[in-house]
Amino acid sequence: MLGLIYRVIKGPTTPDRVVALDALGVNLIAIVALVSMLIDSDAFLEVILLLGILAFIGTVSFSKFLEKGAIIERDRNR
Amino acid sequence: MTEIVNYIIGFFLLAGGFLSLVASFGVLRLPDVYTRNHAASKSATLGIMCILLGTFLYFYIVHGIFNSKVLLAIVFIFVTAPVGGHLIARAAYHSGAKLWDKSVRDDLKDKEKYDRQHS
Distance between CA atoms of A30 and B41, rounded to whole angstroms? Predict the structure, then answer.
């Protein structure tokens, strides 16, 4: 995780930072799972699903932003 | 029975931690965006699936709780992580990130010429 944070801050280009942020989200899911096993509670398991969805949406929107500069395109310009 | 299950859960958790460590080292050490993306998406996905499978087995066998949300999370991550990696790689290529200077193939470079010839 420390290595990934280093890459987020230092990373030479913007896609580097996005890749590292995606991997950070995925590692956060693992940490939530381990903590919920450690304290024997299954109340945190919704958080896993929510974090997965949020990480995916963040990655997709960042890549759209890098590619075109607009996150939501509107084709109806007439 | 429960002792064997404990060993299986421990194996899954250790494998997941090892794969996440490998992903972190790959993101730190590899030379350009595309190889880093490869390391992050594949290895971290496999590690996370191992850890979540261990969590599911722990709650199912030790506590008797069948938690379908963890299974749903495994399937979701397995589906969406390659899609996210591919999108990021494509966006990086189109935004002009450089390849490593020792890479030997660049198939996307003459894609436009190919399209013009075959249309």
Answer: 14
- Closest Cβ–Cβ partner in A13, A33, A53 for B33: A13
Asked whether the beta carbons of residue A22 and residue B40 sit closer than 8 angstroms, the reply is: yes
Under the banding of pLDDT at 50, 70 and 90, the label for residue B110 is low
Confidence of residue A78 (pLDDT cuts 50, 70, 90): very low
Pairwise pLDDT comparison (B49 vs B92), residue with the higher score: B49
- For CA atoms B20, A39, B1, A48, the dihedral sign is negative
* Chain B residues interacting with chain A (CB cutoff of 8 angstroms): 13, 16, 20, 23-25, 27-28, 33, 36-37, 40-41, 44-45, 47-48, 51-52, 54-55, 58-59, 63, 65, 67, 69-70, 72-73, 76-77, 80-81, 83-85, 87-88, 90-92, 94-95, 97
Q: From CA A65, how far away is CA A69, in angstroms rounded?
A: 5
| Count of domains observed in chain B | 1
pLDDT in tens, B36-58: 788 878 877 888 888 888 888 88
| Domain span at B83 | 1-118
